[in-house]
Design goal:
80 residues, alpha+beta, 3 helices, 3 strands
Length: 80
């Protein structure tokens, strides 16, 4: 079960920013209110997924003529 968001006014948020950021780092969300209406939300960053290197190794082979010049008719089509 998730904790209910901490709700604070703008002035209180400025005064307690360090404390609120510690709460956010612990998984808590903070709603910032102006005249009793929510105007912003501070939420923790989602962990970044690291990409696996070499996952598709062997699925594609680069042909020997990969960097060979294109046929003239293909190259000419770029300039029409």
């Amino acid at each position: 079960m998730t904790k209910p968001a901490i709700r604070v006014g703008v002035h209180e948020a400025k005064t307690r920013l360090s404390e609120l950021l510690r709460a956010v780092a612990g998984g808590q969300e903070v709603d910032i209110l102006r005249s009793g209406e929510p105007v912003a939300k501070i939420v923790p960053f989602a962990p970044r997924n690291l990409r696996a290197v070499g996952f598709d190794e062997g699925r594609f082979t680069v042909p020997d003529d990969f960097d060979a010049p294109l046929p003239a008719e293909v190259e000419d089509s770029f300039y029409r």
